[in-house]
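Technical annex, item 7. During the second reporting period the consortium partners agreed on a shared format for inverse folding records so that results from different sites could be compared directly. Each record opens with the tokenized structure and is followed by the designed sequence. A conforming record, contributed by the partner at site C, is shown below for reference.
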């Protein structure tokens, strides 16, 4: 009974007026009808088909897990470190973004701008005065000015709700550069040329569909004197008034007058150039239309992940490891690694065969396979043991120990 009373006593509802949350007036009182910290694409990318390509690459790159790990003496993955940096990369990067949303923000801004800065906004000690600090939150910033030892960054300030510019040393922020900068971000690169051609095509389409008639009226007299020109101007205005004042846009002319229509399709090679630049961009990025529409097979997807997705992810891991991990931490085996689930590209019909090969060759245990396919671990202790299930246990027990076999061989030699 006491638990029920205590439950009702401490119960809370978001819509109760007694203890409703009241915003702090010291926050500035700024509000938006859209999310202010979302990345805004530049260079006209938001007006072209390039947006879908960049967003697809950013989504696939963010699907790869980036972790703060510890390596063994051979440089192999040993365990995941439960640190603030690992929590930012996998759970919550800041008050607005989860770890995956933060990574997608990094990749999308990186592909669009060419370089981004990952800023540790909240830390336990100042990163400017100390090399060893715990990272509590991360934000993606845009580098607006470069100095020899520092950078000016445009960064969203979650405390006041607006973007501000701050100057930070290069040693305390992770600056990531797009590995495909020459193809995507150079002023005369393939991607920028494609964007310019698409903008030109938009201008031509707007002119074609602007609603103008583009016609020439031939009057039955020669227009050379000023009086005749004024008379022709009056005639043109009367026809315009007839067309605009008519419900269905109908006008009449004299039998001696003629009208020549000029509103016809303009022949140009813009579409051919756009198709050529698009195919060239896809080939240079290692992407295809099959990847975008979801019909790519396993070989095409592996090529896409290797040539297109892996370079920016590796650049992110190297930048974070270089900036946020001290030399002492790297000596102790700490590192930043990314992991890709190879089973995502496997069809359901192949999962059983792959699981059998992995367990038979003692690569994964049965419980690890069950985790991959979304099943709970088995309570059987043997399910966590790396062992070939095709070899019976009785044969293994009958097999002589290495020491016994060596003694038996020595006895045979002595005899």
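Designed sequence (site C submission):
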């Amino acid at each position: 009974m006491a638990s029920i009373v205590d439950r009702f006593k401490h119960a809370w509802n978001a819509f109760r007026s007694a203890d409703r949350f009241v915003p702090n007036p010291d926050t500035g009182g700024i509000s938006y009808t859209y999310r202010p910290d979302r990345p805004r694409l530049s260079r006209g990318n938001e007006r072209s088909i390039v947006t879908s390509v960049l967003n697809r690459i950013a989504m696939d790159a963010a699907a790869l897990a980036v972790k703060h790990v510890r390596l063994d003496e051979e440089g192999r993955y040993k365990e995941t470190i439960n640190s603030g940096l690992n929590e930012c990369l996998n759970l919550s990067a800041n008050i607005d973004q989860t770890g995956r949303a933060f990574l997608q923000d990094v990749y999308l801004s990186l592909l669009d701008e060419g370089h981004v800065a990952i800023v540790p906004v909240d830390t336990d000690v100042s990163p400017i005065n100390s090399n060893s600090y715990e990272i509590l939150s991360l934000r993606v910033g845009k580098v607006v000015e470069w100095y020899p030892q520092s950078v000016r960054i445009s960064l969203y300030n979650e405390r006041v709700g607006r973007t501000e510019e701050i100057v930070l040393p290069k040693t305390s922020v992770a600056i990531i550069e797009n590995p495909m900068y020459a193809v995507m971000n150079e002023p005369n690169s393939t991607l920028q040329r494609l964007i310019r051609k698409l903008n030109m095509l938009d201008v031509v389409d707007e002119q074609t569909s602007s609603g103008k008639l583009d016609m020439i009226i031939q009057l039955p007299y020669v227009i050379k004197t000023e009086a005749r020109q004024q008379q022709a101007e009056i005639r043109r205005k009367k026809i315009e008034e007839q067309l605009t004042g008519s419900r269905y846009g109908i006008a009449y002319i004299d039998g001696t007058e003629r009208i020549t229509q000029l509103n016809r399709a303009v022949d140009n090679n813009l579409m051919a150039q756009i198709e050529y630049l698009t195919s060239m961009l896809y080939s240079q990025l290692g992407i295809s239309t099959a990847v975008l529409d979801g019909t790519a097979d396993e070989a095409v997807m592996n090529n896409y992940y290797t040539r297109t997705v892996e370079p920016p992810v590796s650049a992110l891991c190297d930048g974070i490891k270089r900036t946020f991990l001290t030399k002492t931490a790297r000596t102790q085996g700490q590192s930043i690694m990314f992991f890709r689930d190879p089973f995502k590209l496997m069809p359901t019909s192949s999962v059983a065969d792959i699981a059998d090969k992995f367990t038979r060759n003692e690569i994964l245990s049965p419980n690890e396979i069950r985790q991959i396919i979304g099943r709970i671990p088995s309570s059987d202790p043997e399910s966590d043991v790396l062992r070939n299930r095709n070899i019976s246990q009785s044969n293994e027990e009958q097999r002589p120990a290495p020491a016994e076999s060596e003694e038996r061989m020595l006895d045979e030699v002595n005899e």
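The mean pLDDT is 83. Residues 194-271 form one domain. All partners now use this format for quarterly exchanges.
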